[in-house]
Amino acid sequence: MFRSVNPATGEEIATYSELDADALEAKLATAASAYRHWRATSLEERTALLARIGDAYEANRERLARMATLEMGKTFDSALAEIDKCTAAFRLYAKDGPAMLAPRRQALGGGGTAELHWLPIGPVLAIMPWNFPFWQAVRFISPAIMAGNVGLLKHASIVQGVATLLEEMVTEAGAPEGLFQNLAVKSSRVAEIIADDRIAAVTLTGSEGAGASVAEAAGRALKKLVLELGGSDPFIVMPSADLDEAARQAVKARVQNSGQSCICAKRMIVHAEIYDAFMDRFTAGMKAVRAGDPFDKGSDMGPLSSFEQRDTVLQQLKQAKSLGATLLVGGETLDGPGAYLSAGILTDVPLDSPLKHEEIFGPIAMVFRAGDIDEAIRIANDIPFGLGSSVWTNDPTEQQRFVREVEAGMTAVNQMLASAPEAPFGGIKRSGYGRELGPFGMHEFMNLKSVLHVAGAPLGQLTNALD
């Protein structure tokens, strides 16, 4: 049994039953059957369905956003923005998907040509977290449908209402039975699902522990795997930056989604020359952040996703202070019901602190002083993670160095890092491997088939033959 609880009030919203063995088997069989049909559909059929799903998201925008806010506490405005991004993803693949799948011709040195074709591989299992409950799933669903694959979602236990709506939107858009299904199962059953021969590949967004467990199961089954395991992203500010804008964006980058985003800026690394000036602005901005009712437009952030998550962050703060860090502002619980925590700043964090090996998944920023660009890059890279980064400088030479030398899958220059349907998303080091979104995300779960021939039949003829 899964319980959906409103973290703003602590009240139960609904309960959901877990799939028993027979129900799970039925869903796997349905997925396999759906794949045999869907892989043979035309690109026109796939794009038409994606467009209809995008329309369904737009038509149900407020209902979907409300469920996200109720189940995990994000502000209603940010939930609406999340649904809008989902709509954009479906429409992107509906518009540009065929071009992403167009065969490519490669000349061979010994004569003749190779034609490269992207073909589907089968049912893909997605194991997704609660922090962006619609978007995390949609950035997997939309390219999977375009690719000719089918999807199975094992969503986080606390957002089963969202999981139900995710399946409903695809079904209501006219998808064939089994094209996308929610699997209401606990994490303990994931390994057996991965081992099933009907599962072709796996994608996971979650913790390092979850990633290691799923990677072990996928490795034993020799299944393709994409992992996005979070990080502790640096936000580097240099003397040539616009300090007002950098500080304003630093606040937003740290407290968005109540600090519960894999690509939140978690470590502010500030050049010593402008450290005090930046801190004056940043501290004032963090103090002004209002945590409150997520349906109240005056709230900058809602509660954390659960009381358990809030307690985890409080324990990290306690440990940091015991090791010499200073809690400059915030980091306090709020009176009344709800898993609320005020926006906070940690300074004087020892560079050998255990926190550099952890991700603070809450609205707490760590601030570090760097004497020069070399030290800033050294601090940025001296962690096991490598997901995103944001660098603030108007010096072109510094920009080039940060792009080359900051160890991350993504770098934003003079802006807050954010995901977009068009751009590859993913990290390096212990932040995982593989990419989501854009053509590269779709290609992760496709068979790149090389078709070799001498004379060079027209691409269209071979494409039809392969379809």
From TrEMBL:
The keyword Oxidoreductase is annotated on this UniProt entry: yes
Keywords linked to the UniProt accession: NADP, Oxidoreductase
Residue ranges of domain Aldehyde dehydrogenase in the record: 2-451
One family name in Pfam for this protein: Aldedh
Molecular function GO labels: aldehyde dehydrogenase [NAD(P)+] activity; succinate-semialdehyde dehydrogenase (NAD+) activity
PANTHER family, sorted: SUCCINATE SEMIALDEHYDE DEHYDROGENASE [NAD(P)+] SAD
Family statement: Belongs to the aldehyde dehydrogenase family.
Protein name stated in the entry: NADP-dependent succinic semialdehyde dehydrogenase
Organism: Allosphingosinicella deserti
